[in-house]
Amino acid sequence: MSKVLVIGGGAAGMFAALFAAYNGNEVHLFEKNEKLGKKLFITGKGRCNITNAGDMDTLFASVVMNSKFLYSSFYGYTNQDVIDFFQRIGVRTKIERGNRVFPESDHSSDVIAGLTRELQQQGVHIHLHTEVKKVVGDDRFQYIELQNGQKIFGDNCIVATGGFSYQTTGSTGDGYRFAKECGHQVTDIRPSLVPLEVKEWYAKELQGLSLRNVTATVFDDKKKVYEDFGEMLFTHYGVSGPLILSASSYICDRVREKELKLVIDLKPALSFEQMDQRVLRDFGDNMNKQFKNAIGKLFPTKMVPIMLELSRIDPDKKVNLISKEERQNFVKLIKNFPMTITGLRDFNEAIITKGGVNVKEINPTTMESKKVSGIYFVGEVLDVDALTGGFNLQIAWSTAHAAGSSIY
Fold this sequence. Notes:
2 domains; six-stranded antiparallel barrel; about 25% strand; alpha+beta; five-stranded parallel sheet; about 30% helix; single chain; FAD/NAD(P)-binding domain; elongated
């Protein structure tokens, strides 16, 4: 039996503590906040997207950074294992669009309550309002030092401190400091799954408008660096929504150096020719109307004045006087609505952190440090990240299970 000290009472920390406790260890969980699972509480807009029920290929394809590192942990504790675990502790789940898994109640508080109950039943010692200042060890872990100077010795230490996003929940980058002090390399950290800023004036005009079933493509000069289909939202500074958040994972390094081109296909179900025929049909039905009064069925009301302005067609021009070239340029606008990405929003709006503890220095089977035995790193503190849809929590569960279950 070992004495295991777990730093961080979020998803990964609670899970690692549980699996260390299942092995009969004496487990102490340290959380600087007044309660466990503070970030978990706000995930999935307060509903907690526990995991994704897609197949293994989907899981690995949704990991943006260092997916191969997760091979052992993902297969060692699968998304189905996660679903079964929560069912066992009394948290019933359901699967929604995109294979996203949520608690049946739609309340993240039920997930946290279930985990807390299980921690208590397994005899885990929970220390709230307890901030860890240092993790000390040479070749082997020795002790942690609390903010008040108290030293707590143990056999193993699991660092589950999260990243640098949502700092109000306590994710202030402590784990990166612990890792560096133990001799680890920490890759450059930056916000990810974060809204994008654009330069065009019309983003602010469209603020609050949500577009569904559109395709977003990002270009670095002529090179396509991202393309996907889904939902997006206009904001006063630019764009957000699932489609855009996912884009940020792929472009965060590029957009620090230069502006990128964002193109929205407003009608991806129709080819250019089909869209042209649709516009022709609408024009035919409104032959004697002015252009501004003939396109209302094509777009949400808020978007009509923007499309009028960008089309460069006189809004008062009769539809039957619009030339073929004007019409086809209008169709191009529908299929290639242009915006210019100037940057990312900051960590306060980022769902996760990209970058972290270099995974080359971590054992992928157990999450144990290759530099200091007895120290483990799990969850967002590692240099692994994924798209939205439950994939990042699956990383937390799988890596935490790998660490906790390997300690005896």
